[in-house]
Amino acid sequence: MRGRARAVKKPGFSLSKITNLASCLMTVLLALNLHSLAAQISQPNTEKEPPKNGAELEKKGVIAARSDGEKTPLQPTATGAVPKKTHPTTVRVYVNKLQGWTPLNGLAEGDPASGEKDEDALEPRVKTAEQGLNEEILAHRQAMQGQAEALKQQQKSLEAEQKELDEKLQALGRNASELSAEQDQRRQDVEHSIDRLARIYEQMSPRDAAAMFDVLDMRVMVPVAQHMIPRRISEVIGNMTPDRANVLSQYLAGIRKLSPDAMNRLNSPVDCNIAK
Question: Where are the domains of the chain?
């Protein structure tokens, strides 16, 4: 009896069989859902219109525009209505629903604010961006043209200033040449005046000439003595006071020399009249 009791098995299913059965059922249900969804996508909802007979449809020949610009007649459905074009947004909504995707912002499916935008919605943005880019390019081009005009004006002003500076330099050169010529002429006049004075003192007596040399300005006395005949200047020095004779002898010997400033003053228009 105990052996028979052990041999009898309890009726039921094991856990593995139940799991396999559930998996098969889920697969079948998923296939049915996919088939139903594919049927909905391929045959979208159509507007209900009054049925039309085949003769009228053949006469009118319902035409639909295709993307390539050609027109082909559409076959009427069983209800007599022409199916509408499925919007890409609706297709994406079905696909997202099939894949289990949901909007992150919690908006309703198919709502334009949910981020599902058609390609036509991007066209205004592209046009706006293109217009803004064209405006920036135009503004940059105008700015470059303005800078080029400013550079041209600066170049013209620089050329005018350079021309004016050249004219001033030429005027300064002419003035320097005239001044140099005037100085040379003045120097020659002084030389002639000193030579004339030397001839005058040579005609005087040594005592009278010595009296004049004792009070004569050194800038005049030294050049006049240098232009006199040595014999006549020696007689004049012999009648001069010892101090003045000593100083004049040093100048004639080259021990002392008149400073350039003193010579320039002698060549000046005021001091030049001293020798006349």
Answer: 142-274
Q: Residue 274: is it exposed, middle or buried by C-beta count within 10 angstroms (0-12/13-18/19+)? A: middle
One-letter amino acid identity for 261?
D
- Residue 175, CA distances (Å) to 169, 188, 189, 267, 275 in order: 10, 20, 21, 19, 28
Dig out the tokens for 120 from the structure: 């036509």
User: Where is average pLDDT lowest: 133-142, 216-225, 248-257, 263-272?
Assistant: 263-272
pTM flag (> 0.70): no
Question: Which pairs with CB-CB distance under 8 Å and at least 24 residues apart come from 44-53?
Answer: 44/83, 44/84, 44/86, 44/90, 46/77, 46/79, 46/81, 46/82, 46/83, 46/84, 47/81, 47/84, 48/79, 48/81, 49/79, 49/80, 49/81, 50/80, 51/79, 51/80, 52/76, 52/80
Residue with tokens 């005049």: 220
